[in-house]
Amino acid sequence: MKNALALSCAVLLSVTVYSTPALAYLDPGTGSIILQLLLGGLAGALVILKLYWFRLKALFSRKPADDRRSKDPESS
Predict the structure, then answer these.
(1) In angstroms, rounded to a whole number, what is the distance separating the alpha carbons of residues 76 and 63?
(2) Upper half-sphere CA count for residue 62 (Cβ side, 13 Å)
(3) Residue 71: exposure state from Cβ atoms within 10 A (0-12, 13-18, ≥19)
(4) Is 52 helix (H, G, I), strand (E, B) or coil?
(5) pLDDT classification of 72: cutoffs 50, 70, 90
(6) HEC assignment per residue over 10-49
(7) Average pLDDT of 23-27?
């Protein structure tokens, strides 16, 4: 077990110390794509929330909606 840990540390150290620079960059369009992804995900989550709002509301309510309608004297 100690040998495996020592070997893992040696490999990790050699990879980080002896790595070459990537010479990569993020162009200006990358930020736009990330922002679009986040806003699209938020919009999708809001649509899902709107579609399932009554189910979520019934899940957290104390009484089911059917019981309230059947006990209401004015609903008959």
Answers:
(1) 19
(2) 0
(3) exposed
(4) coil
(5) low
(6) HHHHHHHHCCCCCCCCCCHHHHHHHHHHHHHHHHHHHHHH
(7) 80
